[in-house]
Amino acid sequence: MEFYVKLTPNPAIRQAPLKQSGGIPLNDTKSDYISIKDLLSLPTLSDVTISECGQRSAFVKRTADWERDAYITYIEVHEKGEKTAEVRPGFRPSWSPCSDQLAFMRKQPNGNQLFIQSMKEGKRVQLTDVEGGVASYKWDPTGKGFYFTAPTHTGHHRLHYLDLEERDSLLPLLEEGVHVLDFDLSLDGGRIIFLASPGPDADDAHKAEMYLLNKFTGVVQKIEESRRLGGQVSMSPEGTHICYTVSREEKDYYRTHIPDSTLEIHDLTTGERMQPLSEADSTWMPIRWTEQGILVKWQDRTNGRIGLIQPDGNLESYSHEDGYTLGASISSDGHHLACLKAHPNETVELYVDGEKVTDENALLSHKRISRKKVITWSNPNGETIEGVLSIPEDMERDRAHPLLVLVHGGPNWASFPFQSTSFNNKYPVESFIAQGFIVLEPNYRGSTGYGDVFMKANARNLGIGDYEDVMSGVDALVEQGMADRDAVGIMGWSQGGFITAFSSIYSNRFKAASVGGGISNWVTNYTTTDLPSNVLSYLGDTPWNDPEIYAKCSPIWYVQSARTPTLIQHGEADARVPVENAHELYKGLKDQGVEVELEIFTGMGYSSDHPEVHKLIMEQNLEWFTRHILDGGRQKR
User: Fold this and answer.
1) Terminus of the chain with fewer CB atoms < 10 Å: N or C?
2) How many CB atoms lie within 10 A of CB 389?
């Protein structure tokens, strides 16, 4: 079945044909749409790793245990494409240089600790027992030990070395006072490059510096850099070059401007620096430096891609088909690759050297699922905005449908046409579709994957600019006869919650709204968030120096015009968007006589460790929009 109206297609995105066999079959013999519990039961895959020989791979699988109301995280091991073992519980797996041992982390009473398991004997040994736990680790390339970071009494992550032959002796490699964010090693383990910030607070990350440590001499050399550094760094096998992300402007510039970055290669011998991909935007990130080149990942509109930057500077992409690669691992010789990838309308699978070795989509094979398609429209400035539209498989052609707008968070993130709780664990899109809604997820200005100019287009224009991008998408669907102008709702979490609050207060176009973890007042958020520098970079100054921009961009200052029934959901322990935002919005709407409900989830930050909480959040949203748009309006079923 094709869409019965045509919106402007994106020529850069090839629409994959529907699969008649394999993947998720699309036919009329399946049962009902995916329930909320089904959706939250979809496994989340992450942390893929491949052995040097290419014969073994592993990844982390996170599933919902409904009896215990908990998420269970364990490692699934594959050998030559066949599942051979599960490590329960466990996460952050990594193969030894000789490919026969798997290191991993496991939660213990005193923090996450490092373990090792032999694939031949099945013997499992705990390697660390450090107070506060291990934060990150990497194998010594010689296979003789591990480099790992662990917190000090001040919370700084300090770098250590653990010799497997002398497990009772831990060697601190750096003095206290720096917080290690990321590190990488030369092939002989003798040179270590690391990124470190002055402190462990979220607002310290943008002050990161880069250091080079010679393990054999103990000499630490600071690499002078006047620009902002990113969160990952990769070292060449011989230890003579490093690849990292760096800002285009000097550090001070980003105090009041949106951060950006590009890939850079630094010759440690000559000091020469080069940027091999002049057109690269801020989504590019190095994964590993191999003998064949540097494995990198980036976002291309609604696709997540990986490729190899070769010694001559050319980029060889591993695939040009539609899909999102969540993570990848490559052998040091560059000959073996494992990745986790989701194709359109499917969930994530493991691929090893180009072959699919898992069948996670079998979980959906007997369920009806929505059709997701990437569409485009023009905003009032004539700029092209892209989004993901979800519709029923058997959508009726002769009527307009109730529409729900789902706004992604970030803002430097995006919506994607895939089935995964990695992208959404708050809003039951499939249940909305089953009720007769269609769902639009706009990639508004500020979204990633569309270039740095687009990513920065919401500078000092938060709220109003977002509203224009969202409403122009709604108008396009209404004008094409697909959406019912009088039956539109809007929802979103975090930045999506802010845009929802702004849009539903700024206009009376919406019949219902659900604000999740959203900012209602930028002054409130600036004074309470754990990341005030992020507010400054988007708004350009403090509220004391520029109160007008804070008022212009804050939903609460338009509350006198509010009419939209609003559900407010918020995590009590959200540090990035503190709960004061929810209370302020609730009070403002209540004073205006607007129908409003407030749900505060005790102990929850951005998300919860309990699937029942996510289920409750989804059920509340389903009930809210069904009641206010379907049961309370023209769209009764």
Assistant:
1) C
2) 23
